[in-house]
Write the structure tokens for this entry.
Amino acid sequence: MRDFKGKTAVVTGAASGIGRAMCDVFADAGMNIVMADVEAPLLEAACGEIVERGHEAIAVVTDVSDAEQVERLAAKAQERFGAVHVVCNNAGVFTGGLTWEVPVKEYDWLLKVNVWGVIHGIRTFVPLLAKQDCEAHIVNTASMAAVTTMPYVGAYHMTKHAVLALSESLYHELTLSGSKIKVSVLCPEEVATRIGAAERNRPAELTEHGDYEASPERAAVFDAMKALEDGGLDPRVLAERTLAGIRDDRFYILSEDKWRETANIRLEDVRQGRNPTFAPPV
Ligand SMILES: NC(=O)c1ccc[n+]([C@@H]2O[C@H](COP(=O)([O-])OP(=O)(O)OC[C@H]3O[C@@H](n4cnc5c(N)ncnc54)[C@H](O)[C@@H]3O)[C@@H](O)[C@H]2O)c1
């Protein structure tokens, strides 16, 4: 898609971080913006700022883990702007801890938002975009965690591996059928967002308190994630990379080189059939 003016983008996880930056960058490119997030006050405020700058934007409070809410989001987007051209399934949450200590409820929460959120986005928007029969692009936010593995973050990494696998399958299906819908997968890493405070949005019924919360492994992971808020990459860099990826029809929109090297080592482990190398990015 080379022309963005007057087109409409739907972005989930739009109240904060990468999603918020995508909305800013897409609006600056002349697009209408449909902003979706579960955190209502922040979402309304973010939308208000974009409208104040003279852009067309609406906020639709949406929990992406609920299929009906995602369908409602699509209906609202069509009702306001007529058609949808870019869909960014970006909302995501994070946790850490030893794989056998993370509670079932916490696994459930991550799967519901990170995996089911993307599934609902695909199941809702692909048929809608196909029916429109015009140029369209879906961007699923995975992570460099989709192509690497690390200790103490297994619950998060497995969800991102799932998003990548689903996105690659979707790419093949749309390509083989000659569809006008294109797909990208965004793989950020170490971005200055509030992902380290993702628990702020965890529903009470998926919350379990206990000893695991105080484990040193979990604490180390959260300390590293919280440090990103000030020391990470500007989310706007990822948002601009996303816009360029859509323009150039690039499937893999990747993060910095040091994470690619870690991914290469993992792929080489698989290729050679050797045991996993612990190779954190340096
Ligand atoms: N920050 C990073 O370094 C990094 C690295 C790799 C991947 N990612 C991915 O980028 C995406 C965006 O995260 P971010 O870093 O901007 O974090 P963020 O916490 O700043 O933004 C995530 C947004 O998702 C929203 N959200 C959470 N649960 C939701 C739900 N059920 N329904 C709708 N919205 C919901 C939050 O309210 C928040 O506004 C996520 O998928 C995350 O996994 C981030």
In short: The chain is about 50% helix and 10% strand. Helices lie at 17-28, 40-52, 67-81, 104-132, 154-176, 216-231, 235-247, 257-272. The beta strands are 8-12, 32-37, 57-61, 86-89, 136-141, 181-186, 252-253. The chain has one domain: 8-257.
